[in-house]
Write a structure and sequence with these properties.
324 residues, alpha/beta, eight-stranded mixed β-sheet, 10 helices, 10 strands
């Protein structure tokens, strides 16, 4: 679901324009089979609206090169148009290319769903997933806890790319946890992602019983954790969190549980990535950390942009430790 307008269409046209007819059809078929007809896209499809827009734009680009449109491509597009118009479901699948492969997530297209913003992946999660993968040695053989895991992009990247000894996903909202559970099984189950049906209900278990699986040498868990009233009693080495301090009312609860975890043993560290949407809210977070005796040892700020047409955002990555 990469924005269609940001695809490198000029490069596509430069390749296609000088081609002879047979080679042009073969090239179009290859593009079609690597996009709309790709096994991942067929098994975990984007929205119908996105697929239609992609195909329409692809056809327009082919015609602008004075090339005949590959028949299967055109038939697929017209077939979609001839079907009864139905609004897209609130959910779709997005597939992210990562260091060691791909991560496919079931997500909502809405900003808020079921009363939470946790049903879609946000910019700081993208950034933290990339940062962790680039710094895999920090996590290798370590026990990692994620606070506010959302739909799982950061954690899945760490598990796949960084070889921790254990990784625990946590969140509080039931709908988020159920979708997270599906996403973890899509990407980490012993079954091939292409054979796993995320909607068959097979993994829709009651999360009152902690979920656990093994991925290579990593023990993976999902737990429900309410920062306002729960405590986390297991020892870990590293805490990670992304986009969890956007609400001033949530900040004291997050800092409380963060301190509880970091104070359990010496040498623990937390990496917290935040999109700085409101400087006052972020300053509130920094002040709350200081008041609770948590120290920011390093801070890195970076501009992040998912694609050329998307807004550029400022993301801060804090390295946080306890004073003990």
């Amino acid at each position: 679901m990469y924005p269609v307008r940001d695809i490198a269409w000029e490069s596509f046209k430069n390749i296609l324009t000088p081609m002879e007819c047979d080679l042009s059809k073969y090239f179009q078929q290859q593009v079609f089979d690597c996009s709309v007809n790709h096994p991942v896209a067929e098994r975990f499809p984007p929205t119908k609206a996105y697929t239609q827009l992609f195909l329409k734009t692809l056809i327009d680009q082919i015609e602008s090169c004075n090339q005949e449109v590959y028949e299967d491509l055109y038939c697929t597009y017209t077939g979609m148009l001839s079907k009864e118009t139905q609004q897209d479901c609130d959910f779709c699948y997005k597939t992210y290319k990562q260091k060691s492969g791909i991560i496919t997530l079931k997500e909502t297209c809405n900003i808020v769903c079921d009363g939470t913003t946790g049903m879609r992946t946000w910019e700081a999660s993208h950034f933290l997933a990339e940062w962790c993968s680039e710094n895999a040695s920090y996590f290798q053989g370590k026990s990692v806890l994620e606070l506010g895991s959302g739909l799982g992009l950061t954690g899945l990247a760490v598990v796949q790319n960084c070889k921790p000894s254990s990784y625990t996903f946590t969140d509080v909202h039931d709908s988020v946890l159920k979708t997270l559970l599906k996403n973890v099984n899509i990407n980490l189950s012993n079954e091939s992602p292409l054979s796993y049906n995320a909607d068959d209900g097979k993994y829709a278990n009651d999360l009152s019983e902690n979920f656990q699986l093994s991925y290579h040498d990593t023990s993976v868990q999902i737990k429900k954790l309410d920062w306002a009233c729960d405590t986390y009693d297991s020892d870990v080495d590293i805490v990670v969190a992304a986009d969890v301090v956007y609400d001033p009312d949530v900040i004291p609860h997050f800092v409380k549980i963060l301190k509880d975890v970091l104070c359990r043993k010496p040498g623990m560290v937390a990496y917290v990535a935040s999109t700085v949407r409101n400087p006052d809210t972020f300053a509130c977070f920094r002040n709350e950390l200081e008041s609770k005796g948590l120290v920011v040892t390093t801070e890195a700020e970076q501009q992040h942009q998912d694609s050329p047409s998307q807004p550029e955002v400022s993301i801060s990555l804090l390295n946080i430790k306890s004073q003990m």
